[in-house]
Amino acid sequence: MFRATADRTARMVSWNAYQSMVAELAAQIRAQDMVPAALIGVFQGGWIVAQSLADLLPGVPVLGAAARVAHGAQAVGLELFAAEDGLLTPARLPAGSPVLLVDEVVDSGRTARFYLQQLAAQGLEPQMACLQAAAEADPAPAFTARRTEALPALVLPWRVLRDADQTVACLLAAGPLTTDELDERLRDLGHDIDPDLLQTRLEELAAAGRIALRGTCWQRSDH
Asked: Using CB atoms within 10 A of its CB, is residue 41 exposed (0-12), middle (13-18) or buried (19+)?
């Protein structure tokens, strides 16, 4: 774990840890005898989590949800989508359907509140599920694999390159590493990244002043 900002940490999540969190969510849902009419994943990351959760809740379809915005980028509504054969099509569910809104994390709860309110306005009966939630989240999710006082910024497996800054800082938190050692650590976490692409990302971070090369080893610039 490392300090991502002045008041926030970040944590890398391996594929194994991610699957364990999804399995915990599924166990909680089954324990409550909830059979949702659909898992509704918040685009983009929540849709990935919903797909993984569906593997453990056979027969439950997965829909995607995205906020509809007006001029000024203010969210004014919610669109539901179904994906089939590579196509997104508008989706609707019968009024009164119990649904499970799925996202990666719930921090303050502002995003969750908006989506839950919009789903309820469509006549649905939504509950919230996420991988990790802040203890002070309002509304609190009905299902979460982890609840913590200080919610870290999760570097999830599909964000390792997108969040390269946080990824590399996490890996270098224990001390300097060579490019080959960074590559080995990533492979241990299940990430087989092209060496040229990894080198390019490292050089970009060095150019931005986030890391520095000392001899053959990379280290964080704040060390």
From this structure: buried
